[in-house]
Amino acid sequence: MAKKTFFVTGTDTGxxxxxxxxxxxxxxxxxxxxxxxxxPIASGCDKTDEGLRNEDALMLQAAITEELAxxxxxPIAFEPAIxxxxxAQQAGKSLSAQRLIGFCRGLQIRPADLMLIEGAGGWxxxxxxxxxxxAVPRELGLDVILVVPLKLGCINHAMLTAEAIRADGLFxxxxxxxxxxxxxxxxxxxxxNYLSTHLGAACLGVLPxxxxxxxxxxxxSLAPFLNIKPLIEI
Length: 234
Hints:
By secondary structure, this protein is α/β, with parallel strands linked by helices.
């Protein structure tokens, strides 16, 4: 069974959850840890001869140390790049927290030192009319890693997300600051200082923007910017 499992969420969609998760996995690999990961739901998948494939799930698959079938990493895949509950409705399917929890528990029984479960969008993204994705880590009792994009408005979004995570009774194990674009935000250091003193969780690192590295090598290039000891030592 996986010794430590964390749920990776973000302040919003497109903030760099996957690249942060993959970089954490690469850092853990460099530390000699056995890793597995999954992205239970993925929208925006490409049609291939092997079925629908999502670039984020493929990045996680490339970063883990243990060999897993794609369907174990991404059991629910939708082609349109839209909110999961809408994509499910359009496909004539339904999403439920219990189904996702089942997928997660099924992978958790695999032996590993570290397992990451990447969510979709932000903390309160809907699964259906009654449930949000946050029901999954809440039911599993998972510690959470928060990815914060360094851009205008990120302090408010990060503080509200951290507040919601704790209101759900979960522990914020750490956060990762990510540069989602090449231009640095104004007053970036002041923003980092505020988040470091007010989020109440360890900053695992600040990921720079790197545009000269191939996508498949990017997680490995970013791993040295992380300190995952707070995760391993929890």
